[in-house]
From TrEMBL:
The keyword Signal applies. SUPFAM superfamilies: Periplasmic binding protein-like II. Keywords: Signal. Residues 1-20 form the signal peptide. This is Tripartite tricarboxylate transporter substrate binding protein. Belongs to the UPF0065 (bug) family. InterPro entries: BUG (IPR005064), Bug_dom1 (IPR042100).
């Protein structure tokens, strides 16, 4: 009897292994939906479409971007977390909604470290403080002087409450001992339009969202918030160089799938994305947006997620910021 049970267990394991191999080998057998948790036109949308188009072109997969914006990207992330773990639903997440939002929102419906699996890191980018080229602000010092003269009157737009970009503005308020008034938008593009029109004084933005308008001469970059200057804009000083020592806020983008997605599929997607990121064309396309490619294994990306998740808990709590 024991021998029969043991034989049955061995047979079940063997069948499971055989079934898993074709699953990975035949993947993908149908189109993959890539949730973009922000509206069209912003940095997340731009990078998502670059990856989706290149996977479709080079890997011969069919990857379809699907914009599900709102609430600083948390609506789209929540939708991905609820999706079936079949490998046919993924989301382009970033530091904003994966490691900052969970500490800001009181009733967030997902835990990024439990409800999603980190699949492939895509890019790293500084955050940039910009203003209209017609603005009176020529330097970051001009902004600080104006804000001290008129507290809560100088405005800055962001892609939404709870984003790294929103927090970058709040952290700068603390560092400079000023009070800029935050105006949240439902994505980068509407915020950008108001800055260009002069309806908002400044915008704190990811570089991919702002780069097109900076290159077109319509936006003036005052400073980047990373520890070092951006390779895409070497002439733009850092906030730290502008007098605020150790100031360092940056963001990253990466692909996630629902928890429980087969490991073989996660490994397949990771390999294909990393292959793309290593090509000169893809590197150039991402660099042109002010971002830098950064290849990681799924395990390395997961470690980054968990490390940043704990790091930003302290930052958010120190800021006192919360969102209902």
């Amino acid at each position: 009897m024991v021998k029969k049970i043991f034989s049955f267990v061995l047979l079940a394991c063997a069948l499971s292994a055989v079934q898993a191999q074709p699953q990975a080998a035949s993947y993908p057998a149908k189109p993959i939906r890539m949730i973009v948790p922000f509206p069209p036109g912003g940095g997340t949308d731009i990078l998502s479409r670059l990856v989706a188009n290149k996977l479709t072109e080079v890997s011969k997969w069919t990857v379809i971007p699907d914009n599900r914006g709102g609430a600083g990207g948390t609506i789209g992330i929540a939708e991905a977390a609820r999706a079936a773990p079949t490998g046919y639903e993924m989301v382009m997440g970033q530091k904003d909604n994966m490691v900052v939002a969970p500490w800001l929102y009181k009733n967030l419906s997902y835990d990024p470290t439990k409800d999603l699996v980190a699949v492939a890191h895509v890019a790293y980018t500084p955050v940039v403080i910009v203003t209209s080229v017609n603005s009176r602000f020529k330097t970051l010092a001009d902004v600080v002087a104006a804000a001290k003269a008129a507290p809560d009157q100088i405005t800055y737009g962001s892609p939404g409450n709870g984003t790294t970009i929103h927090l970058a503005g709040e952290i700068f308020n603390t560092a400079a001992h000023i009070k800029l008034r935050h105006i949240p938008y439902k994505g980068s593009n509407p915020a950008m339009m108001d800055v260009l029109a002069g309806n908002v004084d400044l915008m704190v933005s990811s570089l991919p969202s702002a780069m097109g308008q900076i290159k077109a001469g319509k936006l003036r970059a005052l400073a980047v918030t990373s520890a070092r200057r951006s390779t895409s804009m070497p002439d733009v000083p850092t906030v730290a160089e502008s007098g605020y020592k150790d100031f360092d806020v940056s963001t990253w983008y990466g692909l996630f799938m629902p928890a429980g997605t087969p490991k073989e599929i996660v490994a397949t997607v990771n390999a294909e994305v990393n292959k793309l990121l290593a090509t000169p064309d893809m590197k150039a396309a991402i660099n042109a947006q002010g971002a830098e490619t950064q290849n990681m294994t799924s395990v390395q990306f997961s470690t980054l997620l968990k490390t940043d998740y704990q790091k930003w808990k302290g930052i958010v709590q120190a800021s006192g910021a919360t969102i209902e």
